[in-house]
Amino acid sequence: MSCPVIELAQQLIRRPSLSPDDAGCQALMIERLRAIGFTVEPMDFGDTQKFLGLARPRRDAGLRRPHRRSPGRRRRPLDQSPFEPTIRDGMLFGRGAADMKGSLAAMVVAAERFVAQYPNHRGRLAFLITSDEEASAKNGTVKVVETLMAP
What we know:
Blueprint: H1 4-13, H2 25-35, E1 38-42, E2 50-55, E3 62-64, E4 86-88, E5 91-93, H3 101-117, E6 125-130, H4 141-149
Parallel strand pairs: 3-6
Antiparallel strand pairs: 1-2, 2-6, 4-5
């Protein structure tokens, strides 16, 4: 059985991202979002990559602000490579499977399905995805909010 959410989550987990190094996770999500009509605005500050993805940019939007998470090193040894996704007992294991790569995969696939099912929807979807929420967090959401709120 194939599951698009699991497949995308596995692709993201395979990328050895450690905050704030994105390791190509955002490029993969940007490619998927652009394919369904999103306009993507990179908003990089310092060592931190992030992007604002908008579908139907002239309308009001509900903004989702997830982070692409992979915190620093763990203190205890793992029983598998953290960047090798594994399905065991029906559950996906790997760095970021529960927070946040798995969630990002679900959001991207949900957006793809929504746009496919409702191509003429009246609202707008928006995502702000950043790679720095698990480290210093100084160049992530804080900088984006400052930039968007500036006169």
